[in-house]
Design a protein that fits this description.
ABC transporter involved in vitamin B12 uptake, BtuC; two-stranded antiparallel ribbon; mainly alpha; about 75% helix
């Protein structure tokens, strides 16, 4: 085996957009939808210093999936999705209860909640469903290459596309609608919850609504990128955008650009290296973060170095 895979420009850069577009086109679209939806809500998590909340939810959906199967006896999309969302909401409530009614800090409460629920899911599988394939690999690692192979969803005789893509598209549309309708409330409560409460905004309700929004986004995304990689999609677009601009609306726009570049370049990287498409997308996203970290116009390493150079040596008084 060669350390450097065989390079074929046609197979890596041309075929995905021509002969194999029916397969790779849906994969790129799904990756973009996941990155965009996660990136939008991730900006608010970063402002609230709650980036690891997505990691907690992505790991705690396992018991919800198992309980949904035990209750319904079905592995269909609807019961699995409902069980996962219920577990995600339970996670956010449990974290808030532990944090508000004990001396435990929020980061410790997150660790307690998601590790306990994830362990509970593992035990439930071992005791009640060890002979049943609950598609755990999909939950943990994602099955992006299989999404284009799913029977397309139809509505009023019109073919829409794979169900996962349609569902993720609806989540992104829903996310954009929330931002447009409640931009001021989300912005104020994220930067200064105390000021938001003083102005009559219900910061507690906004926070809980944000957690439900996050839960739906994470549960919809893990089918494509897996629970392990959802946290990267939640953090990388927003963190990259934060190095480019201080304005939230500009950050949201750059998050969409980050999602698009990660989807397209990640596809080419995964084909060239014959590796996981979702993993390749995260690697590309990390590279884009590194570029912004070094060359960012405001907080980039080069910009700060140049600013110090122009100021010259500081005068000691």
């Amino acid at each position: 085996m060669s350390f450097i895979p065989h390079f074929s420009a046609h197979q890596i850069f041309i075929a995905p957009w021509t002969t194999d577009f029916s397969l790779y086109g849906w994969m790129v679209l799904m990756t973009f939808l996941v990155g965009a939806a996660c990136g939008l809500v991730g900006n608010y998590l970063i402002l609230r210093r709650m980036a690891l909340m997505g990691d907690a939810i992505s790991h705690s959906v396992l018991p919800g999936i198992v309980v949904a199967f035990l209750v319904t006896g079905s592995r269909g999309t609807v019961p699995m999705f409902a069980g996962a969302v219920a577990a995600a909401v339970l996670t956010t409530v449990l974290i808030e209860v532990i944090h508000r009614h004990s001396r435990v800090k929020q980061d410790a409460a997150i660790g307690i909640a998601f590790s306990s629920l994830f362990a509970l899911g593992v035990i439930l599988i071992a005791v009640f469903a060890d002979t049943v394939d609950l598609d755990q690999d999909c939950v943990l690692n994602g099955e992006l290459p299989l999404i284009p192979l799913s029977p397309p969803m139809t509505l009023a005789g019109m073919t829409l596309g794979p169900p996962a893509v349609v569902r993720m598209g609806c989540v992104l549309f829903f996310s954009c609608g929330l931002i447009v309708l409640f931009y001021k409330e989300l912005l104020l409560s994220s930067f200064d919850p105390a000021l938001a409460s003083a102005m009559g905004l219900r910061s507690g309700w906004i926070h809980q609504s944000l957690m439900i929004w996050l839960s739906i986004t994470v549960v919809s995304a893990f089918e494509a990128v897996g629970a392990i990689l959802v946290i990267a999609m939640l953090i990388l677009p927003g963190a990259t955008a934060a190095l480019i601009s201080d304005r939230l609306v500009v950050r949201l726009g750059w998050s969409l650009v980050h999602a698009a570049l990660s989807a397209v370049l990640g596809l080419h990287l995964s084909i060239g290296l014959d590796c996981s498409p979702s993993g390749a997308a995260v690697v590309v996203g990390s590279f884009l973060f590194g570029v912004a970290w070094i060359f960012g116009p405001q907080d980039g390493l080069v910009s700060r170095w140049w600013s110090r150079k122009e100021r010259g040596p500081e005068t000691l008084v």
